């Protein structure tokens, strides 16, 4: 394309002769509107803005004002709106622009606030120095970067551009010319659908977007394990807790499990669900599954039952590998199960040699489930070849070797877990698997890091870990052993990457970007130590992968321009399980190559690195997990009082994580509450998919096309979120300070003094954090139990001032008021746990919950504190509970109850009261079993139960003969298998606290009556003892069956039955 300088280049203008000639020759009847149509289309291609306004300036008087301030008098400003959602031809768009400019009225000239940083200057005079000066003055006034001058004299349109330093706009003239030429060939096509890039630009992008071509191994990954088992059998492969496996042991155990699968029988392509917690069992399972050509499908036992059942319905597995955790969920599932926790005797009967099964790279390898738009999770089906590409990409790029030691903290249901757990074994290194309680304990996690060389953590964990290290380590030499650190999943903030460089001085720092559909290894970016990172970049493609950035018509976009990211290459998986239509929609053919649309918006920087800008679809990243927002909407709409809804992910404040916000249109006269909605959603969705805030709207906003416009959804504030109280302002400094703290904690502005803590989204963990802050600032201790009844700022401030006196009840909370002349019912070891029970009891007695503030204080100090190590002891805990009870009630008779561990405390408190000569009328144990009850069955008996449930036909006579001659028992350490009543970090540490206490507990005989309320929904692998093991210790034991599971008997739907039976024993 020819250009000529009409004036000296120092004046700063370039005129494009070819472009002017093309416009004049093709569009003589409407040269100016046609050019504006072309210009706005190219601007759309450069900005990715679908709708924007283009300002057009024309002269009223030429050169009558000499200063910029009065320049507006010389021009009329009009504008037109470009909307890429309307499929115009060039002719149609030209006519629309012409009509708009002729009919619209003049606008005020202001600093440009349009979405495109450009203006157009029209003149009917010949191009002159005065016009150029005016254009520069307009650019200075409106603060735009790009100015186009159109002079239309004697029916000849000339097009000129002020020079710009912005690389974003330098190619616009050439792209205008390319667009005009392409339209000339197909004038009836939609103007937005044309390519504007030159062949040279396309070639440049193709080079930048292609990863290195590497020939990958034709052997499945388990062959590497077999190699290391043969060559370095005594090298440590995996450790978890106190268990270590060498490569030789790992391969032998995996082989025995694989031979069991073959005998079952499992065939190539069969699906095996791993319903397992973090342990070495999961590693054995993966390799055993792959050795027989089966498909590994992990499911988290902590998922809601509805989600687990939905996944099983989709997969239809031939076998489920289980352990004791979460077994009750699978009780009525008609699918064969095999419990790895008690499998040693069975598996020892099988060979340890490598199975001779021919597994090739086209065979399916694994299925990971991600959030789905229809309310159902969707399964991503990958092959053995995808897995080899996955691991070899990591090995080759980051130079991993047998000297590397990895740490795994992720749930095994996320596809990135394969990077953490399989990469070290693929290269002959070692893997350390850590439990959830270690991840929560930053001090312990730091100790673990000092023994490894490689870690990959998500941004959410790093945002907690890195500040902790900065505050608690004088220097960072303790981490000099670490040579590789990486992050991904969410968009990794630049400041997090900078801190990684600062702390881990010997480590290379990388961002890893991808998704399950491209086997995670899509792009990677090494963070330079020579410069400060300003933007989130994900770098360049991994080996055998390529990336394209397209507009919505499948055209490549200009360098530096946003567009949709598409990946091709060996990492692309087969598709989605049982979802052919979705697979065809997301995996598309472009120029004969299969691409996957990952759903992110990005652009190339000047060096060819991809910069991420956000999501294009309705997915968000929560704690590193991709969440399909329509799935949450699906379950919200199942709530009868919700007429319509939309869920979005937003960053509520700078540097914070994404929060899920649900916008609801409620039906007329709805009395719905946020608490009720959360209770509904918890039945179907994991905790990370529950919205933080619920906003009520009269209607969902729409754009001019009557489509939902998410950009118009209002920010949450106290006037639109779902609360039952009206706003009331603060009256003093204390209330103002507390409001400010709540607004920061809940990320909501406009909170009043009478808004309820729990309606705003408060829970027990936030309550503890809030009350700790109150104590720090005002030196006023408020028991956590108080916030149950005094849950507004008005009340908390009154307590701080002394206007409200909190009764000296110590660790007691009144759950239900009653007759003060009657002895109360004490519910031990919980507060919120017993709330539904108290409300359902038909008794006149006061109902109190008892929970130790001392325990909360110790747990807050962390599991490594000396106080934590000394505190967990049943006798000590019993004495503290006894002291709390006797402060409130000095003499009997006493009524005591407790759920799970609380039942043990109730029994021991009763024992101490009886020693004092007091009368105990009731000891009610709510589904409390003796410690170690689940482990009382021998491995042999559990194997028998398993075989009777799943069938004996899978065992040959020879194997069965071996089994029946095994007469020894493998006994495990006693452990309490209770569940916590919440899933937050506080509950995780509390669970560890209880396990530590029970380790030293010795049960003594008890001669007085005890009522045991037993949940009917139980694990097959518990002993079939109705008394849950108490019969040998308690002489006068009465057992009453209650419908429900361990915690379910205390929840609505089941608690009424428990309350009815319990009330019968509340008599004097």
TrEMBL record:
Q: Which GO terms describe its cellular component?
A: cytoplasm
Which Pfam family name is an example for this entry?
Answer: Thioesterase
Q: Name one GO biological process term.
A: amino acid activation for nonribosomal peptide biosynthetic process
Instruction: Recall the GO molecular function terms of this protein's record.
Output: phosphopantetheine binding
* PROSITE patterns assigned: AMP_BINDING, CARRIER
CDD domains per the record?
Answer: A_NRPS
Which InterPro entries does this UniProt record tie to the protein? Answer: AB_hydrolase_fold (IPR029058), ACP-like_sf (IPR036736), AMP-bd_C (IPR025110), AMP-bd_C_sf (IPR045851), AMP-binding_CS (IPR020845), AMP-dep_synth/lig_dom (IPR000873), ANL_N_sf (IPR042099), PP-bd_ACP (IPR009081)
Q: Which residues form the Carrier domain?
A: 729-804
Q: This protein's superkingdom?
A: Bacteria
The record ties this protein, via SUPFAM superfamilies, to: Acetyl-CoA synthetase-like, ACP-like, alpha/beta-Hydrolases
UniProt feature coiled coil, ranges: none
Q: Extract the PANTHER family matched here.
A: FATTY ACID SYNTHASE, NONRIBOSOMAL PEPTIDE SYNTHETASE
Protein name, per record? Putative Amino acid adenylation enzyme/thioester reductase family protein
Species of provenance: Planktothrix tepida PCC 9214
